[in-house]
Design goal:
Oligomer: single chain
Strand order of the largest sheet: 3-4-2-5-6-1-7
Radius of gyration: 38 Å
Helix content: 40-55%
CATH topology of one domain: Rossmann fold
CATH architecture of one domain: 3-Layer(aba) Sandwich
Number of strands: 15
InterPro entries: DEAD/DEAH_box_helicase_dom, Helicase_ATP-bd, Helicase_C-like, P-loop_NTPase
Pfam families: DEAD
Number of helices: 29
Protein name: DNA 3'-5' helicase
Shape: globular
Distance between the termini: 92 Å
Largest sheet: 7 strands, parallel
Structural class: alpha/beta
Catalytic activity: Couples ATP hydrolysis with the unwinding of duplex DNA by translocating in the 3'-5' direction
GO molecular function: 3'-5' DNA helicase activity; ATP binding; four-way junction helicase activity; hydrolase activity; nucleic acid binding
CATH class of one domain: Alpha Beta
């Protein structure tokens, strides 16, 4: 029997080109030469470390080997004798279930059956009563399995990789987004560090191990990943190409407001250009604030929820997958607010703007964010980062080693201990402190070939989209076109709402604003609701790893408190809960709480108003009574009667000099004595009478308030009142 030819030989390369041309006609020019080199080595069982730009076709490197071997299994007589499998299957380790679902969708377009092994899909098979382990191990249903590192330690994967059928047909184990072995494996998800041990210990030695990424820096970072995966010496094929994105403009824009603000006017400037956009947020609380700002800036109606979306790990897999579909297919779906779940690997070809608030922890993650846009090389895209000016100065100090002199206290004259800024990852600090060209700095860090030109600034290198430093220096302004819309369709603009800083509150707005005490009571009630929700849901399988703060986020509670008195219906409440994972189950109960809080606040305000009015009337009555009493006393006081006239015969004495014991003081003295005796009793009676009047008035007005509450229905009653009414 003739020996099998190697794929890296001439027959193998020709076979690869023939099958790709036959089965993937949409790739008119076939594979790039560097893609062919990787695919052929994988088919020969050689290990591969591949570093090239986002959108450079890395997914083809694990899809094409399966396409080729499936075709050779169907039609073996058409091709030369090469190393093959009867039921070829591959494993791809993915960091998120969203990326796994995205890969499955992309491979379906190439007629490769793939499966995302995650909680939702596993549950679906359990519900159907089917043995998922056997289905995967038999290699008949799926040719590619996407799985996260945490699931690899399950007993199910021990049984899968122990199956003779699976071991005979598996051709590769691949780590997609391999830079996360270092970044997430250190603390966030330590099982990323054990992927290499799984591949080496559970798969046959003939299986190729692949690592793919656009953001692996040369040197120590590359060496660490190689050690983790067992790559050493010349035993693996290392492909490193430039990760530069010539159709994406790199911009850093400083903010003139604090990020703790609830207003982001610079965001609306970009959104009003009507380009398909992803807004990257560091925390889900930040996502909530940014989303609600954009939401409130759109005209009321259901179209707001069609125009802007959210994407994060608390959404179900189906919701996130549908969001990606709408971004590509619905022209009215313009923007998605996303967490780190959107950062790595997702392929949405319609996206052209990446807006990020604050620089991520590493430069790798920044370039991954930028890599989500401009996937179509014919488009012009932007990657914009908004940050505080202090971030740039901190980076410059870190790189230069400069230390500011300590501040001196005016009171003590001693140095004040300054708060030390958090250290910035070195490569990120190099970019942030760059003063000439951001792209040149990035190319130097990743050693993007050829360095003779890649290390030049954008103007010298004649880049079509100069970075913000080069553009500012040369005063270059580039117009970026809007994303295409169907004929006749227009999108309403985002318009920032008037705020307390721009105009005083109207009387109606003042009525809708909570006092400090009211806000504290509302936040306390919403906090109790959040704790009750957590206790009710924490044992559900979907919530096993959900953090306490994610059940009912504090940012959502704060926004709800701010809008509390303006919520007139359950529909209004639903508009605020678009990003809340428990909206479908708990919106009704939350609305009951909202109605109860509204009724309590309005009732307390009305009671306070009535008591204030009664107190003011009592004060006026008491003051009037005192004034009348003083007048009566002066009219009837016998000590103040006229004195006897002098006899006509007596000479008229000269007028007396005014002294401190003059007539005015005598009158005052007499009046005080009268008040102390009989007048004191009258004043006491007047005070008692006034207090009685206050109590009577308050009692009558409380009765009136109760009658109004009963007559105006549920809006003025508590939830318990309405339940008693229904029971009656």
């Amino acid at each position: 029997m003739a020996s099998l030819s190697r794929w890296t030989g001439t027959p193998g390369r020709q076979t690869l080109q023939t099958i790709v041309k036959k089965l993937i006609p949409q790739w008119a020019n076939g594979l790039y030469s560097y893609q062919e080199d990787v695919v052929l080595r994988v088919l020969d069982g050689q290990d591969v470390l591949c570093c090239l730009n986002t959108g450079g076709g890395k997914s083809a490197m694990f899809a094409v080997p399966l396409i080729v071997l499936r075709e050779m299994t169907r039609n073996p007589h058409l091709y030369p004798r090469l190393r093959t499998r009867a039921r070829p299957v591959g494993i791809v380790i993915t960091p998120t279930k969203g990326l796994a679902a995205n890969i499955v969708l992309e491979l379906q377009k190439l007629d490769v059956p793939a499966f995302a092994y995650c909680h939702e899909t596993i549950t679906d098979y359990h519900k159907k009563g089917e043995n998922l382990v056997k289905i995967i191990a038999d290699c008949k249903t799926y040719s590619l399995i996407c799985v996260d590192p945490e699931h690899l330690r399950d007993d199910s994967w021990r049984r899968i990789t122990a199956s003779d059928t699976f071991r005979a047909n598996v051709i590769f184990g691949c780590v997609d987004e391999a830079h996360l072995i270092n970044e997430w494996g250190a603390e966030f998800r330590p099982l990323f560090k054990h992927i290499g041990a799984f591949f080496r210990g559970r798969l046959p030695s003939s299986v190729a191990i692949m690592a793919l990424s656009a953001t692996i820096q040369p040197g120590a970072e590359t060496d660490s990943i190689c050690r983790s995966l067992g790559f050493s010496g010349n035993s693996f094929y290392h492909l490193r190409l430039s990760n530069d994105r010539p159709n994406v403009q790199f911009t850093i824009q400083t903010l003139d407001h604090g990020f703790s603000s609830d207003e982001f006017p610079e965001l609306l400037d970009y959104l009003n250009q009507n380009r398909k956009t992803v807004i990257h947020c560091r925390r889900i609380e930040d996502l909530q604030r940014l989303f609600m700002y954009a939401f409130d800036s759109l005209p009321a109606g259901l179209d707001r929820l069609r125009r802007i979306k959210t994407y994060h790990s608390l959404h179900s897999l189906d919701i996130n997958t549908e969001t990606l579909r709408l971004l590509d297919e619905d022209p009215m779906c313009q923007a998605v607010f996303a967490t780190v779940a959107f950062t790595n690997g997702l392929n949405v070809r319609s996206l052209v703007d990446s807006l990020a608030y604050n620089f991520p922890k590493t430069l790798n993650l920044k370039l991954q964010e930028a890599g989500r846009v401009g996937r179509d090389p014919e488009t012009t895209a932007r990657a914009v980062t908004f940050l505080q000016p202090s971030v740039l100065s901190d980076a410059e100090k870190q790189i230069s080693g400069r230390v500011d002199p300590p501040k001196i206290s005016r009171k003590t004259g001693k140095p004040v201990r300054a708060k030390k800024p958090k250290p910035i990852e070195h490569s990120a600090a190099l970019v942030l402190s760059e003063s000439k060209c951001y792209i040149a700095a990035i190319n130097r860090i990743y050693q993007n070939p050829p360095l003779e030109t890649s290390a030049l600034d954008c103007i010298s290198a004649k880049r079509l989209l100069p970075c913000s430093l080069c553009g500012k220096r040369k005063k270059i302004n580039i117009e970026f076109p809007s994303s295409p819309l169907p004929s006749g369709m227009t999108l309403p603009p985002f318009i920032a709402l008037a705020t307390a800083h721009s105009a005083p509150l109207t009387p109606e707005e003042k009525k809708l604003k909570l006092s400090k005490k009211e806000r504290e009571d509302v936040m306390l009630a919403l906090g109790k609701f959040a704790e009750d929700l957590r206790r009710a849901e924490q044992h559900h399988p979907d919530n096993q790893h959900r953090p306490k703060s994610a059940y009912f986020p504090s940012s959502l509670r704060e926004h709800l408190a701010a809008k509390l008195l303006s919520l007139d219906s359950l529909f209004d409440l639903h508009a605020l809960l678009t990003t809340w994972n428990f909206a479908s189950s708990y919106a009704g109960l939350l609305y009951d709480l909202v109605v109860e809080l509204q009724a309590t606040i309005r009732s307390d305000r009305e009671t306070a108003r009535l008591e204030k009015n009664a107190k003011q009337r009592a004060t006026r009555s008491s003051k009037k009574a005192r004034e009348m009493s003083e007048v009566d006393e002066m009219d009837t006081d016998p000590d103040l009667s006229d004195v006897d006239d002098h006899p006509r015969s007596s000479p008229i004495p000269p007028p007396a000099k005014r002294t401190k014991t003059g007539t005015g003081n005598v009158l005052k003295e007499v009046t005080n004595r009268k008040k102390a005796s009989s007048g004191g009793k009258q004043a006491s009676r007047g005070k008692t009478s006034s207090t009685a009047k206050v109590q009577v008035n308050v009692g009558k007005e409380r009765q009136t308030l109760a009658a109004i509450s009963a007559g105006f229905g549920p809006a003025y009653r508590t939830t318990s009142d309405r339940r008693r009414a229904r029971a009656g």
